[in-house]
């Protein structure tokens, strides 16, 4: 990712599913990549990217609800926690576009789709992340999980495991069940990295 994303990272490589609560209580607080998110949230940036020829190969201005349906569990509002989150048509639409973008990544998490993820979404979604709305954070963690297949790229590296663990530290306990897949991806990456390091030592 760009320098705005890389510059905010903290060393959170020891966080996993079982100790995320302890990390939240004892470690230096994780900071979202606010500079990067604010830049992406600028309408002018979004318009330029949306009009790019490469983006038009797989992105449409019309909401693809079929792609969003794969991640419909991330937008279900059936739990007591849901009554405390802000909710209106614009918020729901922002989440639906984000889920459709995840559907795009599920089809092919190539570098162009990864880079363009936030740039192709309504500015409302980036605002929800900056507000630390739990549902927005959970979806954001799923985005980083799709980076798992590209960790050899210099611009990605350890970004997935660090961001997923950091985001998990911000997600309230009642929302943690929705973090299961991103955290499992993160743990797999850490295990693979540890194994590779041990092989290099021997």
Outline the structure in words.
There is one protein chain. With 202 residues, the chain is mainly alpha-helical. The protein has helices at residues 3-6, 20-26, 34-40, 43-50, 53-56, 65-69, 89-107, 111-116, 123-130, 134-145, 159-170, 180-201. Helix 2 crosses helix 11 (159-170) and helix 11 (159-170) crosses helix 12 (180-201). It is globular and about 55 Å long. The two termini are 32 Å apart. Residues 1-13 have low confidence and may be disordered.
**Could you tell me how far the N terminus lies from the C terminus, measured between alpha carbons in angstroms?**
32 Å
Provide the structure class: mainly alpha
What is the rounded Rg? 17 Å
Note the beta-strand portion: under 5%
List the helices and strands and how they pair.
Layout: H1 3-6, H2 20-26, H3 34-40, H4 43-50, H5 53-56, H6 65-69, H7 89-107, H8 111-116, H9 123-130, H10 134-145, H11 159-170, H12 180-201
Helix pairs in contact: 2-11, 3-9, 7-9, 7-10, 9-10, 10-11, 10-12, 11-12
Provide a brief overview of the structure:
With 202 residues, the protein is an all-alpha fold.
Keywords:
0% strand, single chain, mainly alpha, 56% helix, disordered N terminus, 202 residues
